[in-house]
# Entry
Amino acid sequence: MIRVFNFSGGKTSAFMVIHYWKKGDLVIFCDTGREHLNTYKFINDFEKFENIPVIKINYKDSNKPFETLIDKKKATPNFFKRFCTKELKINTQKRYLKSIGIRKFENFIGFRYDEQLRISRRKQKFVNVIDKFPLNEDKIDKAIINNYWNNKLYTLEIPAILGNCTLCFMKGKNAIINILSMYPNLADEWIKDEETTGYTYFNGITIKQLKQIAQNNLFKNNLEDITPAFDCSCTT
# Structure
C-alpha cells in the first residue's frame, strides 16, 4: 500500500519523514500561502540535506491559496467554521492523490507521544485511508525532537508558535498579540482578509485591533514560551 507522509514544514513532521520514509513513499506539503518565510526556507533545506523529495501542492493551484479560498467563501474561517484546514490541507491532498490514481493509502501523521489529546481527537474519516502515528508508537516526544534538531546542520529558524499559518486563529488572541509585538507586519494580509470580506477571525475583535494592542504591549514575552490555545489538525 502507498504510504503518504503529511509534511507541514515543521521540525516534528520533518523528523517523522527522516526516520520513517522509504523510497517510493510520498511526502506532501500542502501550502496555505500563509507560512512564515523561514518555513519555506526550511523545506528547501530539508530537500537539500536529506535528499528526500517534497511534493508541494496548493488549493486550486493558486499562488495565493488562502486568498483564493476566502474569496470563494466570501468569509474568513474561524474557530467554529474551520474550512481552511479542510480545504487547504485535507481536501487539497485528497484531490491531488486522486488525480494520480491513489485512493487507498497509509496516512502518516506527525503527532507525538506527548500529544495524546490530538491523537484521540483524530477521527478516521475515509474507509480507504489508514492513519499512522509512528512518533506516538515509538514514544517520541517534544524533548527528543528538539534535541535532534539541536545537533543538525540546519533547522527551522523560527519559534514553534510561528509554525503553520502565521496568525492562525487556533493559536488564540494572546498568542497573536505576542507574535505581533515582535512581527507587526505579519498582520497586514490578515487585516486585508477581514476588511475585504467583512468577517473577523475572532468574535468581537479584529486583527487590526489585536495589532494595536500588541503595539502598546510593554511586556513582550519570549515567543519560545508561547503555545497555541487550541490544537489544529495541521501537523508541525
In short: The mean pLDDT is 94. The longest strand covers residues 26-31. The chain has two domains: 2-150, 167-225.
